[in-house]
Design goal:
It is a single chain. Helix 7 crosses helix 9, helix 9 runs parallel beside helix 12 and helix 10 packs parallel to helix 11. By secondary structure, the protein is an alpha/beta fold. It is globular. About 50% of the residues are buried. Strand 13, helix 9 and strand 14 form a beta-alpha-beta unit. It folds into 2 domains: about 120 residues, no CATH class; about 325 residues, 3-Layer(aba) Sandwich (Rossmann fold). Strands 12, 13, 14, 15, 17, 19, 20 and 23 form an 8-stranded mixed sheet that branches. A 4-stranded antiparallel sheet has the order 4-5-3-9, with helices on both faces. It contains 12 helices and 25 strands. The N terminus is likely disordered.
């Protein structure tokens, strides 16, 4: 009788713990979601706990139901010898063939609601579920404690889980965005210090802008001389985490031949209102630069779509921005000039693979801190993500010299200003190096690495390059400046790909899509 009573009490307690969502997290019935604790926290002392009533926004990643099938499809769709070569999928086809199943998505919704989280947005491909709720609900759902820390490099506090989140082993969850705010979006543009740069690197100024730096027609004269292609019928999509002033774009266009007026559409995400920030760390200059670079290379674009995520750290969810771009399959030319920390992310990579399956080209600025040190590009504390991804095209930077005043191409060298930025940077110049996380992709195998010091076993970065020096930008509601950075090169590549896809469309051919297997 005693044993039966005790057994009943044990099951009652376990049942109560299950209902409360605070069951023990050890054992075969649970799985740990790796990569959610910033590595930096191991070297910091917690200053407290995040207030229980604080509201958080999260994006829960849901895994594919046929990841192997997707890999096989991508191998075929980019193989010229395959009957499926460049037979891309529409977003709905991708979801049906490879995406999470409806029951899996429903299970994640039920998990969120059961734990006191509110579903704020669903996604057509079912790769993400956006939820919100108080800290207490988040901690209960993922079996973590959210602690506060003083940021080691920024004048602010941040929060992060003290352990990796854990969920039921049968629950289809890949990862969770928003469990920490260690990372904030980081624009990769660099304002130039002319005196310092000229003294150290002797960079030329042979452009046709008012300041003698490079502007629209200079890029076309250098890289696509004599072409009549201008991006007609093509669209460019841009990842952004700040706003822009439309009059700055018009002012820039007025300096270009024919004063083009490319239509610009803004997609506001995660509660951002689109108003440019004005702090010392404002990314407005990056947003303006990216728009202007795309127009420079392809002044006849039918549209530029600016996907603006929320720059506020508590609402910063880059996967929401990327997934909305994947859903916009009519935009074949995409670019990102921002970085964030967190290291490799499974859901991010799945989104990039969906883009490739749909024939979208995605160009990412590799970074501006010179050569990566060992393990740097994949570190959860380095704000370079997604600069090691093998599923997008990583863009490095060069210094361009032109004949005359932006008249024709003369020469190009690796972009490097020779300036030290302290321990967090090796210098200021085009980033590149070797990933410690991703193995070498098939399209980099068989290439001699003797001259460039590359790896024969790991992913090498970057894939391509373009000018990243002495570039003119109009921004900040009437200002202009000379800038550099691979953030110049990435949108130029997106604009260039718009020309390529315009030519393909005119010949009745599909978009080029993910270019790395071809180049």
């Amino acid at each position: 009788m005693y044993c039966k009573s005790r057994t009943f009490r044990v099951f009652t307690v376990l049942g109560l713990l299950w209902v409360l969502g605070i069951c023990p997290v050890s054992g075969a019935g649970w799985k740990t979601l790796r990569g959610h604790v910033p590595a930096m926290t191991s070297r910091l002392a917690a200053t407290g706990r995040l207030p229980a009533t604080n509201q958080l926004r999260l994006a829960i990643g849901v895994p594919l139901h046929d990841a192997a099938g997707l890999e096989n499809f991508l191998a075929q769709v980019y193989d010229p010898a395959s009957p499926n070569f460049r037979k891309y999928l529409a977003p709905e086809e991708f979801t049906t063939r490879f995406g999470p199943t409806e029951p899996d998505y429903a299970a994640v919704k039920n998990f969120a609601r059961t734990n006191g989280l509110v579903v704020t947005a669903t996604h057509g491909n079912r790769l993400l579920l956006d939820v919100a709720g108080p800290v207490t609900a988040v901690e209960r759902a993922f079996h973590v404690t959210l602690r506060t820390y003083r940021h080691p490099t920024e004048n602010r506090d941040f929060f992060a889980p003290d352990t990796e989140p854990t969920v039921d082993a049968n629950l289809p969850i890949a990862d969770v965005s928003g469990l920490d705010d260690f990372s904030r979006p980081h624009p990769k543009v660099h304002r130039s210090d002319a005196a310092t740069i000229l003294a150290k690197a002797g960079t030329p100024k042979s452009g046709s802008s008012p300041s003698g730096t490079y502007i629209g027609p200079d890029f076309r004269n250098a890289y696509v001389p004599g072409t009549t292609l201008d991006g007609t019928g093509q669209m460019v999509g841009l990842v952004q985490f700040d706003g822009y002033y439309s009059n700055d774009i018009v002012a820039y266009e007025n300096l270009l031949p024919g004063s083009p007026r490319v239509p610009i559409q803004t997609v506001l995400l995660d509660g951002f209102n689109g108003v440019p920030t004005t702090s010392a760390n404002s990314g407005n200059i990056e947003v303006s630069l990216d728009i202007e670079m795309a127009i420079s290379m392809a002044p006849g674009l039918s549209n530029i779509v600016v996907f603006e995520g929320n720059p506020a750290s508590s609402f910063f969810i880059p996967n929401d921005v990327l997934n909305n771009m994947a859903a916009s399959n009519m935009i074949k030319n995409l670019s990102c000039s921002w970085g964030w920390s967190g290291g490799p992310d499974a859901t991010t990579e799945t989104i990039f693979k969906q883009m490739a399956a749909q024939g979208q080209s995605f160009f990412n600025a590799s970074g501006d801190s010179d050569a990566f040190t060992a393990g740097q590009v994949d570190s959860s504390s380095f704000d370079g993500s997604p600069s090691s991804s093998p599923n997008i095209t990583q863009v490095g930077g060069t210094t361009l010299t032109m004949n005359g005043t932006g008249a024709s191409y003369a020469s190009e060298t690796v972009w490097n200003w020779g300036i030290s930025r302290g321990s967090s940077y090796d210098g200021v110049g085009g980033s590149g190096g070797i990933s410690s996380f991703y193995s070498i992709p098939a399209w980099q195998q068989g290439v001699s690495m003797l001259a460039n010091g590359g790896s024969t076993t790991q992913r090498n970065i970057p894939d391509v390059a373009l000018t990243a020096d002495n570039v003119y930008v109009a921004y900040a509601n009437g200002s202009s400046e000379t800038v550099g950075g691979t953030s110049c090169a990435a949108p130029l590549w997106a604009g260039f790909m718009a020309l390529v896809n315009q030519q393909a469309a005119a010949a009745g051919k599909p978009a080029v899509g993910f270019i790395n297997p071809t180049i």
